[in-house]
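Morning!

This is the sequence you dropped in the shared folder:
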Amino acid sequence: MVVGKITTFGVFGINKASVINDSSGFETFSDSLGFYSVSCNPEDKLTFSANGFFSEKVSLKNISENDSVNVDLKLKKGKKNISYATGFGHIDEKRLNYAIEHFGSQPDYSSYRNIMEILEGRVSGVTIKNNGISIRGTNTLNNDTDALLIVDGTVVSFQVFQNIPPVQVKTIDVLKGAAASARYGSRGMGGVVIVETKTKN
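The structure's back. Tokens below.
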């Protein structure tokens, strides 16, 4: 019997989170505090999921018999996912708002597959093309004008930008309109994407 707790932001228990034994297909759910228990074999894998959160899979292969299996599910970006998390009863709205404000000020982007997925998940109107990024609402004479890409204060190519590992992203900001032109002049007419990495000196 495997027992543990499912949390988010490392603090708050997730209610009614799904725990599936991938081998048997058996599904159980966490209680109001995030605790769960499920019968397993030593070689099984468990999948933890909840609406509005990234799922997580855990192998029991290297788990000792008396160890608890605790997981911390990361909230997906966007108002829609916040609505899912609260609407399905996984976490109280006030508690989630508090968590986002006090624990989410420096987001962990490690769950994203690439930096483009971060952009598309956080900024409306962003379109990823084969060799550039366009931002809807920019004041350009040519709708095909790409956004200026800046990493740690340096202008970089799209090829360099797209290869930044999400786990290394510290902050990511998008400027357009007057905010972009004021700082970067004509170069910022297509908008500006500014990334600061954790490796910046």
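Headline: Residues 115-197 form a domain with the Ferric Hydroxamate Uptake Protein; Chain A, domain 1 fold (CATH 2.170.130.10).

More detail when I'm at my desk.
O.
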